[in-house]
Design brief:
This protein is mainly alpha-helical. The protein has helices at 10-23, 36-43, 47-60, 78-87, 92-113, 116-134, 138-155, 159-180, 183-201, 205-239, and strands at residues 63-66, 70-73.
Length: 240
Amino acid sequence: MVRKTHRKSLVEQVAEQMEQLIEQQHWTVGMKLPPEMELMAEFGVSRNTLREAIRALVHAGLLETKQGSGTLVRSSSTLGSALARRAKKSTMLETLEVREALEKQAAQLAAARRTETDLTNLEACIQSCRHASAHGDVEQFITSDLQFHKNIVLASGNPLLVDLYEHMTGILYAFIQDVLAMEPALQKSQKVHLELLEAIRKQDPESAACYAARDMKMLKEMILDAREESYEETNRNIGR
């Protein structure tokens, strides 16, 4: 059965243009939108049309209206907003399992598609991790470690995978930060990273996926162990 074509309403058109401005980072997260009159003139619409478009984007999670502060950009994409809302309803283990799946797929694709520039970027991250570990700079190590994984995803050449991974990493960042603050974790991460990089360099997708899975399994175990230790410590304090 043929359905009638749907012509976008003026509100939908304005909302779509505003969403594009956010995704293109013309309006960044945390930024306050221009005054209402300015937006009305820019889009050539009435106050009611503009407000309806803003209301739609607030409902989608892209914008947030605060009393006395105006309208602020809350998320860089509807995908990120939707993932954040869904993640709040998921357990940490479920979130880790999804990230593991993304890491394995990214490693496979990176091994098949990587360029010399990709290898150079990955090597730079490993060198930065080594330097940070040698000098006890935990914050720098965490930054370099996360960038290493992001660069693998970038090397996959799949923009949607990059977006998905970016938002999943943000959700887990606090837990990763706590785990990587432990010295043993720093040493284990470096060894697996070297093996993973070598598999990508040799363009061996199967081995790359295997090492990525091993890396994520180790991280998952450390995070869960850290959470268990925190739980036990809390119980001991309560029992005092």
